Amino acid sequence: MELLLQQILSGLATGAIYACMALAVVMIYQSIGHLNFAQGEMATFSTFVAWQLITWGFPYWAAFALTVALSFAGGVLIERVVFRPLKDAPALSHIVVFIGLLAIFNNASGFVWDFTIKTFPSPFGQGPMFGAFLNMHQAGMIACTLGMLVLLYLFFSRTRLGLSLRAAAANPESARLVGVRVGWMIALGWGLASAIGAVAGMLIAPGVFLEPNMMLGVLLYGFAGAVVGGLTSPIGAVAGGLIVGVMENLAGTYVPVVGSELKLTIALSLIILILIFKPSGLFGKTLAKRV
Amino acid sequence: MAIERVSAILFLLAAIAAPMLLSGFFIFQVTMLLVYAIAIMGLNLLTGFNGQFSLGHSAFYAIGAYAAAILMDKFGIGYLWTLPLAGLICFAVGFLFGFPALRLEGTYLALATFGLAVATPQILKLTPLEHWTGGVQGVFVAKPNAAMGLPLTADQWLYYLTLSVFILLYILARNLIGSRTGRALLAIRENPIAAQSMGINVSLYKTLTFGVSAAYTGVAGALGAIVIQFVAPDSFGFMLSVTFLVGLVVGGIAWLPGALIGAAFILFVPNFAEEISKGLSGAAYGVIMILLMYVMPSGAGGIVQSALRAVRAR
What we know:
The complex is a heterodimer.
Chain A: H1 2-32, H2 39-55, H3 60-83, H4 91-113, E1 128-129, E2 134-135, H5 136-158, H6 160-170, H7 172-177, H8 182-208, H9 214-229, H10 234-254, H11 263-277
Antiparallel strand pairs in A: 1-2
Helix pairs in contact in A: 1-5, 1-8, 1-9, 1-10, 2-3, 2-4, 2-8, 2-9, 3-8, 5-6, 5-8, 6-8, 9-10, 10-11
Chain B: H1 2-21, H2 24-49, H3 57-75, H4 79-102, H5 106-124, H6 130-133, E1 139-140, H7 154-178, H8 180-190, H9 192-197, H10 202-228, E2 230-231, H11 238-251, H12 258-276, H13 281-295, H14 299-313
Antiparallel strand pairs in B: 1-2
Helix pairs in contact in B: 1-7, 2-7, 2-10, 2-11, 2-12, 3-4, 3-5, 3-10, 4-10, 7-8, 7-10, 8-10, 11-12, 12-13
């Protein structure tokens, strides 16, 4: 029983990492309707910026705030410069552009900050908590993810801008007719996704060490979490990320022989199983389609 | 029609003459180009013509490659026989994977196939399977010599073998697309519900397409294993699927000859980017990819097709 509890808790801790990333994935999916393959590398790049600022002597939270602001601006800029001219291109072409961005950001991080691993400070410390099940940083990370979720919820449901963003995503034509500037809303979605990705990167880095390929694995889990939870729901994304983390951990512990070697595979097969019975994710809305 | 026939003949002449004019390493590269082109053609049947998105084709490529390697290494089966066998095995796997894929669409299908791509290297490395797969070490494959005492080097022979397989599979794909079945595939891509109401068995066609697409990619994998003479789990990861997808889009979606252009892109452009700048080769590759999408958003196929249309309209 104690083993089970411990595995679930440490699953939640890794799940929180995935949940952060899943949240960023859902944000971008909401505004452009695609999964952004470059999201992980963009987040890694942001984290490197934060690392550089801290190394230059900025206090942690100042560097944090500055990085989030810079990432937001960077996200908007990418949308304006790279994607605006391609807005009528086929969906698969967009995917190639995402892959191009992935290559650029990955290479740029490695080129500027080289490939040696770096330690990244945690604002919460590394001391134990809850009887050694979680450390302070993991607890802080879970708290941050939930905090971000609450902020996003308030933004989307209580502010005029959040409403416009939702309108632009749900029905661009009608949104434009009632005066929403749809193009800028998409750019704003990119900015938000990029900022959330930066937060995720900065929260993840203390646990996994900072290097240019840090996010590659995490993004995969983030996708999985986002899809399990339903790509239309931020709450679903967080829940999905946590579910993936816990499932992965439990599979590694309790499935005999192949469990530890195949924990990712087992987690992904469970996800596919969930999707077969619930094709739009656990919390997603089922959309009716016109013929 | 005339333009297409002339360009097909020109391609054939160039392809047959190529090994006489090129050196050993370049022959190897052009052979790999044809191998990738077969894989991209398989992906095109599924994604381009049937509208099912796949990030899992690295898995079918891996299954084909491992099937060929294991059949040769452990069962002593001749390399030529491994090609149809790898195709059959991959057809079965793809067909079976097509069933759960029926329930999923778009992004969700992408995730399911993506799971397949991520899982494959892990399964290949699995300890209980090590006797067959060689674990992390992989399996070595002997290089075949020219058959029937033909006066060709091993590289040239492999090139002609791959070329023949490519031409055979190309003709098969072309006929498939032009047939009643092909029109059913296109109808499903355009609108599954409308296709169903016209009496097309959507489930059957979708799963069969998955199988055929996987079989193409599996044959490519088997050829790739013979040409490279080595299979190892980590060369068949998710990035290989992404590479195929890039090749598909660059070549042109739903345009079969595009497979050659796409394969040339994924094979040569990374090297070219390396020459631009050693340290920033990845970024250069990325920039080239993005610029290409600006210039031709629907790939080489889009440009060629609109050019053809303009010529015919005169």
